[in-house]
């Protein structure tokens, strides 16, 4: 009920307008590294200084016009150039709908290709974030197409709560495509997704096993210490080197855990979002954990 209610607010324009007016002051800044590239770069430098790699995400989704997609493409090209110039230890993540996937898949591929090409010039990597289920197949096919064209520094995300994910992981592993594995953060029907947490966790472990056993590089994105400990134990038993995988977490969440794993010698990557269109991302973070919403409510109580 709690999660469904909050996810329902993600597309509510009135709620978004209110949040954009007050949200950064009331707590969104804990989860979003500012609205400008400069603010984001300051945040990633601090993380790099602690031995934590990053993936930068210029937030934006659900665009209505292709000129918006052109603007986001330009922003990502500038981001990649800035990361190279500032010697950032990181990569970038983007949403395919941000590049026009829902409006014109052909031109969306062109924009993403231009970004991937720029990334390869600087030896950087591009992750196509996975959005809700209407875009799962199209997103996977975008990545497969780019690999067929010879672009290797691009990968995507697989969500463990979808029934189809084991099949997708096996196919993409055969093609040696870099993946980020997550539990999943969108509201999906029980006809296509596991509804129970235990079932999602079980499938998540299954996907992690497939990838670790394959030797294809994998990002394991979770704040769940039980899953993290299980992964470390499994990798140790199977003599899988730490260089074969990394742990990924979100900006502002479980920061001490991120720092601890980095000190232990694990590769840790923090997902650092920024930009003016932060509201849908922020709502999904609140929906994931009641503690996140409680943090915002406490800040509301302190506002003068």
* Widest β-sheet, arrangement of strands: 1-2-3-4-5-6-7-8
The radius of gyration computed from the alpha-carbon positions, rounded to a whole number of angstroms, is 18 Å
CATH class: Alpha Beta
CATH topology name: TIM Barrel
Can you tell me the residue ranges where pLDDT is under 50 for at least 5 consecutive residues? 293-304
Report how far apart the termini are: 31 Å
Number of helices: 12
Strand fraction: 5-15%
Globally, the shape reads globular
Strand and helix order: HHHEHEHEHEHEHEHEHEHH
When the domains are counted, the total is: 1
What characterizes the major β-sheet? 8 strands, parallel, barrel
Mean pLDDT: 89
* Gross CATH architecture: Alpha-Beta Barrel
Number of DSSP strand runs:
8
Structural class: alpha/beta
Query: What share of residues is helical?
Result: 40-55%
Binding site for substrate: 95, 284-285
Domain Proline dehydrogenase: 41-296
Enzyme class: oxidoreductase
Cofactor: FAD
Structure characteristics:
disordered C terminus; alpha/beta; flavoprotein; EC 1.5.5.2; 304 residues; 8 strands; nucleotide-binding; proline metabolism; proline dehydrogenase
């Amino acid at each position: 009920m709690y999660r469904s209610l909050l996810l329902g607010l993600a597309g509510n324009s009135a709620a978004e307008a209110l949040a954009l007016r007050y949200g950064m002051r009331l707590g969104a800044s804990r989860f979003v590294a500012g609205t400008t590239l400069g603010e984001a770069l300051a945040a990633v430098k601090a993380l790099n200084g602690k031995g934590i790699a990053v993936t930068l995400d210029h937030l934006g989704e659900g665009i209505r016009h292709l000129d918006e997609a052109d603007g986001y493409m330009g922003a990502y090209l500038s981001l990649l150039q800035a990361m190279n110039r500032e010697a950032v230890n990181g990569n970038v993540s983007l949403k395919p709908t941000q590049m026009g996937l829902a409006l014109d898949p052909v031109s969306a591929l062109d924009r993403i290709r231009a970004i991937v090409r720029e990334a390869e010039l600087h030896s950087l990597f591009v992750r196509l974030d996975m959005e809700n289920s209407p875009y799962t197949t199209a997103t996977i096919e975008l990545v497969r197409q780019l690999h067929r064209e010879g672009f290797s520094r691009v990968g995507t995300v697989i969500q463990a709560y979808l029934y189809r994910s084991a099949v997708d992981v096996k196919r993409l592993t055969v093609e040696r495509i870099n993946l980020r594995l997550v539990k999943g953060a969108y509201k999906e029907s029980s006809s296509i997704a596991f509804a129970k947490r235990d079932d999602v966790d079980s499938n998540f472990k299954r996907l992690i096993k497939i990838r670790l056993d394959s030797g294809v590089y994998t990002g394991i994105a979770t704040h769940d210490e039980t899953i993290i400990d299980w992964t470390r134990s499994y990798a140790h038993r199977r003599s899988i080197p730490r260089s074969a995988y990394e742990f990924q977490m979100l900006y502002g969440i479980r920061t001490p855990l991120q720092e601890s794993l980095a000190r232990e010698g694990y590769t840790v990557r923090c997902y650092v979002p920024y930009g003016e269109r932060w509201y849908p991302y922020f709502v999904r973070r609140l929906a994931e954990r009641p503690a996140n919403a409680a943090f915002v409510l406490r800040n509301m109580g302190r506002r003068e």
